[in-house]
Amino acid sequence: MGVEDNVEEKKPRSTFGVRHIQVFMLFTGMVLTYSMRVNMSMAIVAMTDERDPNSFNWSVQTQSVILSSFFWGYVVLQIPGGELAARFGGMVLITLCVAINAAVSLLIPIGGYYGGWQLICGCRVIQGLSQGFLYPSMHNLIGKWVPIEEKSSLGTVIYGGAQLGTALQLMVSGFIADYWGWPSIFYMNGTLGAIWTVGYVFLGSDSPQKSRMIGEAERSYIQTSLGQVGEQKRLPTPWKAIWTSLPFISLIVAHCGQNWGFWTLMTEMPSYMKLVLGVDIKANGLMSALPYMAMYILSFPLGFISDYTLKKQWLSITTCRKISNSIGHFGPAIALIGLSYSPAGNVTVAVILLTVVVALNAGHYTGYLLVHIDMAPNFAGTMMGITNCIANFISIIAPLAAGVILQDETDPKDWLKVFYLSSAIYIVCNTFFVIFGSSEKQKWNEPDNDIDAVSEKKTQKVV
């Protein structure tokens, strides 16, 4: 009897289980954390509106510093976050992440009025620090809760929450700021985050082994699928093997390309909508949200196609991941070039092209993002911490670079330079990943096996 038959036999009859509750909580956690991550992109438009007598007189450069300040803290705890998740489990870290972000969101309006842009930067740094646990913890929890047969689909559901959170935040922020003032944006985020934290404390769990809610049949199904039956050992991290792995270095490069393109658009799009296209704040939010909603929707068919292709064995897992990532990076690069040549002042064409740029980026969900787990599931959290740490230095640089390039934010020619640069970075980084990337499970994923093999050879020599 093969492993697949064994897994199929142990699969519980019920289609809904405790693992789906975990997936739902992680999905909503992603929605909320990304809402709190991107809310400043819309809020700052209202905070600097000259028509409001209580607005802040911040220069473009100051606004760029505020928008990038989140990432100053975000990069710090990425690698420690991966190690902490492996040692203590992902639940406590993800709980701290959302709770701290919620508390700071409630304090940002006070910080703005009494401490100016410097204190707002401080608040955003704290939020970034705590969100450093987000992706390492998510990878850790997915690796323990999601069976192999459901990894692409349920993983897409969880990580798709990032784009849904982004879209919803951009969509409602303009209306909230218009009717109740910009502080209400942060109050709403903080309140929802506090509610989620309470719910996850009661419903969440580090693993099926530690869950008090899960049934034996579902626990056995998950453990058998993942090969985690019995007590799990804490494996030493093979740092040298990781850092000298060319496929892993290609992940770093792909992640850097992703962050430059994504966060340039994320932080600058509301300003582009307002100053170049002349769209008011309410329509600005709706139009800025449309690309991310399209990305969220497109992630599901891409995830299904990827799973179906692998199930039918039409392509190797490495080829499948590279094709997905190429859709996610080459596609937006081409669309950005098209955006650069779109008719001046044509809002419809610009919004359609921006939507295509961001929607196609959904390919990265079934591209490089899953390769961490493919290559070395035992160290997926640590690897994600490393790539996310390095790539998010790019998230700091990208909006600052846009601020330097945009000497006149109302000049379409300056924006053309921003789009061309992002397009070039997408192409170069994905080309490197396509050449050197691999989803083959690495030998150093099982360091104990290597040690055992060496010991066995020594024993044979002695004999």
UniProtKB/TrEMBL annotation:
Localization per Swiss-Prot or TrEMBL? Membrane
The way this protein sits in the membrane is described as: Multi-pass membrane protein
GO CC annotation terms, alphabetical: membrane
Q: What is its main location?
A: membrane
Q: Report domain Major facilitator superfamily (MFS) profile positions.
A: 21-441
For biological process, the GO terms are:
monoatomic anion transport; sodium ion transport
Q: Which GO terms describe its molecular function?
A: symporter activity
Q: Which InterPro entries match?
A: MFS, MFS_dom, MFS_Na/Anion_cotransporter, MFS_trans_sf, Nucleotide_channel_N
A Pfam match = MFS_1
Query: Where are the membrane-spanning stretches?
Result: 21-46, 58-77, 84-108, 156-176, 182-203, 241-263, 283-305, 326-344, 350-371, 383-406, 418-436
- Source organism, top-level taxon: Eukaryota
Q: Which keywords appear in this protein's UniProt record, sorted alphabetically?
A: Ion transport, Membrane, Sodium, Sodium transport, Symport, Transmembrane, Transmembrane helix, Transport
Would you identify the family this protein belongs to, as annotated?
Belongs to the major facilitator superfamily. Sodium/anion cotransporter family.
Entry-linked PANTHER family: FI21844P1-RELATED (PTHR11662:SF280), SOLUTE CARRIER FAMILY 17 (PTHR11662)
Give the protein's biological function: May be an inorganic phosphate cotransporter.
Name this protein carries in UniProt: Putative inorganic phosphate cotransporter
